[in-house]
């Protein structure tokens, strides 16, 4: 009984109006307008019926009619509290009209107006409360009607207590089902949104980890060169003082420690089932091979590679290759058969490496095309943005008026911090 009482006294969302989350203000007002129309229709009719058909005093009839209908306005935002008020008023009205002489042949214990108002109330309760609360409300409704029927005897036609019990159950069942279905759809949308956000976050972390593993080789190469130069300096340079020899030895020792820490970091970044890559990291010198592989896959590609690129930092060299690789892979996936142009050149001030990958609209082709180089990241624009951000460059992407797509990246030829 304690749990039963708690169910009937604890609303699910107190104070939240029906359709309160709708964007349009007119839609949010619809429940209030309907409730006001229902109250305005039932209130005067109830007063007149109580006075003329049941011989109730005018003042008492007004109070009862107000208590039975006015809470329907409150039901828009607080349906469970409104139900308590309406149920008490309906039971009180049945007790007031129990006089068998004055009310002979009239519907009892519920009047037709009570049935209509109660069903409207059940509509709001069913759209808001949980299943356990709906069952409890329905059982209390039936128990009150049958108890009054047993105490007063069946004097009126129609057995409205049974009609109200059945109809209220049907309304609660339908509205409760609709509410649960709506809640399930909202939870599904929320889960899809969360899953999409988590998927994007996981993709970003995986791409950053991959970039970190690739840059390990670049940094390790420089550290190895520093170690060798510092170790060999006393033998290559004559006349070094003892302090200089100690300084070179300290530099070599620090470089070795840094290499050791980097290898430990790489072990953390590498997953359990991932083996170390033994092939050299690709660069701009392999873009030609990448384009040729793309052409063999059936994608018409035109390459424009400037001959005066000069020395390119290793991080930029690797990032440029990966950007071109990912852009071509995206063309194969999303615009098979489209004519594509790849261009790598220096900016006029010789400070930037300009990468341009432009493709036209997808060509109609019946032959399926396979992705170019399965070793690609597969993370599309996310990977490009991370690599550009790493080197301190910029990236512009977007569709073209002819249905194609453009990827334009600018990477500094002197590596900067982002």
TrEMBL record:
Keyword DNA damage: no
Keywords per UniProt: ATP-binding, Kinase, Membrane, Nucleotide-binding, Phosphoprotein, Transferase, Transmembrane, Transmembrane helix, Two-component regulatory system
Cross-referenced Pfam families: HATPase_c, HisKA_3
Membrane spanning stretches: 32-51, 57-76, 83-102, 108-127, 134-154, 160-178
GO molecular function, one term: phosphorelay sensor kinase activity
Catalytic reactions of this protein: ATP + protein L-histidine = ADP + protein N-phospho-L-histidine
An annotated GO cellular component: membrane
Domain Histidine kinase/HSP90-like ATPase: 319-414
UniProt xrefs under InterPro entries: HATPase_C_sf (IPR036890), HATPase_dom (IPR003594), Sensor_HK_TwoCompSys (IPR050482), Sig_transdc_His_kin_sub3_dim/P (IPR011712)
UniProt-listed Enzyme Commission number(s): 2.7.13.3
Domain Signal transduction histidine kinase subgroup 3 dimerisation and phosphoacceptor, first and last residues per copy: 207-272
CDD domains hit by this protein: HATPase_UhpB-NarQ-NarX-like
Domain of life where this protein originates: Bacteria
PANTHER family per UniProt: NITRATE/NITRITE SENSOR PROTEIN NARX-RELATED, NITRATE_NITRITE SENSOR PROTEIN NARQ
Protein name per its UniProtKB record: histidine kinase
Organism field: Streptomyces thermolilacinus SPC6
């Amino acid at each position: 009984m304690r749990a039963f009482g708690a169910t009937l006294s604890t609303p699910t969302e107190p104070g939240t109006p029906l359709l309160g989350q709708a964007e349009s203000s007119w839609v949010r007002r619809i429940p209030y307008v309907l409730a006001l129309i229902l109250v305005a229709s039932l209130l005067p009719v109830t007063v007149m019926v109580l006075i003329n058909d049941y011989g109730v005093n005018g003042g008492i009839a007004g109070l009862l009619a107000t208590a039975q209908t006015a809470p329907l306005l409150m039901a828009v935002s607080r349906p469970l509290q409104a139900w308590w008020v309406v149920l008490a008023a309906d039971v009180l009205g049945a007790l007031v009209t129990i006089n068998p002489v004055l009310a002979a042949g009239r519907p009892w214990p519920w009047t037709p107006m009570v049935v209509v108002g109660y069903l409207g109330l059940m509509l709001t309760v069913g759209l808001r409360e949980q299943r356990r609360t709906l069952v409890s409300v329905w059982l209390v409704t039936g128990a009150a009607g049958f108890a009054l029927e047993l105490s007063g005897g069946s004097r009126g036609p129609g057995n409205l207590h049974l009609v109200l019990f059945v109809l209220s159950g049907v309304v609660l069942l339908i509205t409760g089902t609709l509410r649960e279905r709506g809640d399930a759809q909202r939870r599904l949308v929320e889960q899809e949104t969360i899953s999409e956000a988590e998927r994007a976050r996981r993709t970003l972390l995986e791409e950053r980890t991959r970039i970190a593993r690739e840059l390990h080789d670049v940094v390790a190469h420089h550290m190895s060169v520093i170690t060798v130069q510092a170790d060999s300096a006393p033998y290559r340079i004559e006349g070094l003082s003892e302090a200089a020899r100690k300084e070179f030895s300290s530099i070599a020792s620090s470089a070795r420690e840094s290499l050791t820490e980097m290898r430990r970091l790489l072990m953390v970044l590498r997953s359990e089932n991932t083996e170390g890559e033994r092939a050299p990291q690709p660069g701009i010198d392999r873009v030609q091979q990448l384009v040729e592989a793309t052409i063999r896959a059936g994608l018409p590609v035109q390459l424009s590679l400037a001959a005066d690129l000069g020395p390119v930092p290793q991080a930029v060299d690797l990032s440029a290759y990966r950007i071109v690789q990912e852009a071509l892979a995206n063309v194969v996936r999303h615009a098979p058969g489209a004519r594509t142009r790849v261009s790598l050149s220096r900016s006029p001030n010789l400070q930037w490496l300009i990468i341009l990958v432009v493709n036209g609209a997808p060509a109609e082709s019946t032959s399926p095309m396979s992705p170019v180089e399965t070793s690609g990241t597969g993370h599309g624009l996310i990977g490009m943005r991370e690599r550009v951000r790493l080197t301190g460059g910029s990236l512009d992407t977007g569709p073209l008026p002819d249905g194609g797509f453009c990827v334009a990246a600018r990477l500094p030829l002197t590596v900067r911090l982002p």
